[in-house]
Amino acid sequence: MRAGAAALAVLVAGCVSTPPDRVSTLFLPDTAGLAVSGSPLRVDLGRAPDGVIAALSRDLGPPRSLPTATCPAGIERRLAWGDLVLTFTRERFIGWQSGAGQAGTVCG
């Protein structure tokens, strides 16, 4: 009886499909903020920080905090996902840097 139960457990386990690998959203920086590849959705400059951070973190993982010592007045937060760095005031997403490109207000 035990062997039959074990065989049934192995058989049922083989029927469970493995979930597909999660596909990360590709955020494409442009002059107005971040376009979402393959979608009409955007993460534009001027959006509230909590919504921007949540959207990127959901797909790219948690950000790294960067110092703000070299930033213009008003920038309170600098967060990086890989080489994409976003800058924020207390109330708004105000700029991005990635490689040699940038838009909005960024740190020096």
What does this structure look like?
- The chain has 108 residues and is of the alpha+beta class.
- It has a domain at 45-108: TATA-Binding Protein (2-Layer Sandwich).
- It is 24% helix and 31% strand.
- The chain contains two helices and eight strands.
- Strand 7 (93-98) and strand 8 (101-104) form a beta hairpin.
- The longest helix is centred in the N-terminal third of the chain and has 14 residues, at 2-15.
In CATH, the architecture of the domain at 45-108 is 2-Layer Sandwich
Q: Give a short account of the largest sheet.
A: 5 strands, antiparallel
Strand order of the largest sheet: 4-5-6-7-8
H-E order:
HEEEHEEEEE
Task: Name the shape in a single word.
Answer: globular
Q: Which range does the strand content fall in? A: 25-35%
Looking at CATH, which topology of the domain at 45-108 would you report? TATA-Binding Protein
Radius of gyration: 21 Å
- DSSP helix fraction: 10-25%
Q: Roughly what is the average pLDDT, rounded to an integer?
A: 84
By DSSP, the count of extended strands is 8
Oligomer description: single chain
* Terminus-to-terminus distance: 72 Å
Counting DSSP H or I runs of 4 or more residues, the number of helices is 2
Helix/strand class: alpha+beta
What CATH first level of the domain at 45-108 would be assigned? Answer: Alpha Beta
Low-confidence stretches: 5-13, 15-23
